[in-house]
Amino acid sequence: MGTLPKTKLGDGLTVSAIGFGGMALTPVYGAVDDTESLATLHHCLDVGMTFIDTANVYGIGANERLIARLLADRRDEVQLATKFGIDGDPTTGKLKARGDAAYVRQCVDESLGRLDTDVIDLYYMHRRDVSVPIEETVGAMAELVTAGKVRHLGLSEVTADELRAAVAVHPIAAVQSEWSIWSRDVERNVVPAAAELGVGFVPYSPLGRGFLAGAVRSAADLSSDGDLRHLMPRFADSALDANLAVVQVVSAIAEVVGATPAQVALAWLRQRAESLGVASVPIPGTRRAARVDENAASLSVQLNADQVTTLETAGTGVSGHRSIDPGWVSSARE
Fold first, then answer.
1. Which CATH number goes with the domain that contains 218?
2. By residue range, what is the domain housing residue 242?
């Protein structure tokens, strides 16, 4: 059994210093194998990567059911996060946010059933439903804490103002939004607000959906037609050259420090969060156990000030919006 360092997010929630994003274990980036996925999840726990993140919408419930198979024997080892608030099928990109109180109560019971557990450690509002006051959504989530169904609350892709309004209703353990060398819009307002309010930050897609790890050199490297990245502006042919230039800088620094590109991208994010004074735990996802080891080892990679600056300068050259729909993420409401 391995152990990783621990990080305290907000509201007293302590998790492994790097987590695991479960979305990759459903067929959003191509075909998956449940046997391999389950082995990868067990390997996470074996090395001490105990913060496991899923959502009701991943695989339309299939991801939670897969994670239930991990929890069956090892529930007490896991800090379990799941989410509600996206209605629709993520593989089509046709989604809407929903945050009314009745929906919150319905979704938590459905997730508890699929996960076959009696409590969720961290329950996130996955997207902001602008037709419902955030106080109503968070108020309904707070009732779940009182009822013992949920231990801590989180919010995904919220603005600084939305975070402040939520914290006024109930303590928030974490904000989960995209953050990486090439997705830094959250640094303007949301990250400083989280730092000020004592809320943790959980960066998703910290490796740019595999791009910053050097996994994609051309559109041909993307998986089948079902690969969500085909729909993303950054993976379009017109953007690839500019974005590969960013990856070349990451790879060059990786050679110098004796690490992989993925480890450099994760180390940059860790050091950036430290400099901004926010407790941060990224959740890279993978289907393979070897990548879990690689990501965990990033915790011992240290970049010097010049390398950090070089990476940040390279990141400004990114081409294309980080989301299929720019209105779907927090920057559109800031």
1. 3.20.20.100
2. 6-333
Q: Pairing state of beta strands 86-89 and 94-97?
A: antiparallel
Number of domains in the chain: 1
Q: Mean of the per-residue pLDDT values for the chain?
A: 90
**Does residue 101 lie in a domain region?**
yes
Q: Decide: 86 and 97 in contact? Cβ < 8 Å.
A: yes
pLDDT tens digits for 19-31? 999 988 876 555 6
For residue 1, being part of any structural domain is answered with no
Nearest to 66 by CA among 30, 107, 27, 103: 27
**What is the distance between the alpha carbons of residues 15 and 10, in angstroms, rounded to a whole number?**
11
- 192: tokens are 């400083």
Task: Report the DSSP pairing between strands 174-178 and 51-53.
Answer: unpaired
Phi and psi (nearest 5°) for 5? -60, 160
Joined tokens for residue 300 = 């011992």
- Report how far residue 239's alpha carbon sits from residue 236's, in angstroms, rounded to the nearest whole number: 5
Q: Which of 58, 123, 124, 204 is catalytic?
A: 58
**Tokens (6 digits) for 218:** 């051309």
Residue 252 inside a domain? The answer is: yes
The answer to the question of residue 228 being in a domain is: yes
Q: How far is 50 from 130, CA to CA, in rounded Å?
A: 33
Q: Average of pLDDT values for 271-297?
A: 95
Are the C-beta atoms of residues 284 and 246 closer than 8 Å to each other? Answer: no
Distance CA(199)–CA(144), nearest Å, equals: 19
Query: Running DSSP on this structure, what letter comes out for residue 40?
Result: H
58 tagged catalytic: yes
Alpha-carbon distance of 169 to 141, in angstroms, equals 10
| Euclidean distance between CA atoms 173 and 155, whole angstroms | 9
pLDDT of residue 42: 97
pTM of this prediction exceeds 0.90: yes
What span, in angstroms and rounded, lies between the C-alpha atoms of 299 and 174? 20
Name the β-bridge partners of 82: 123
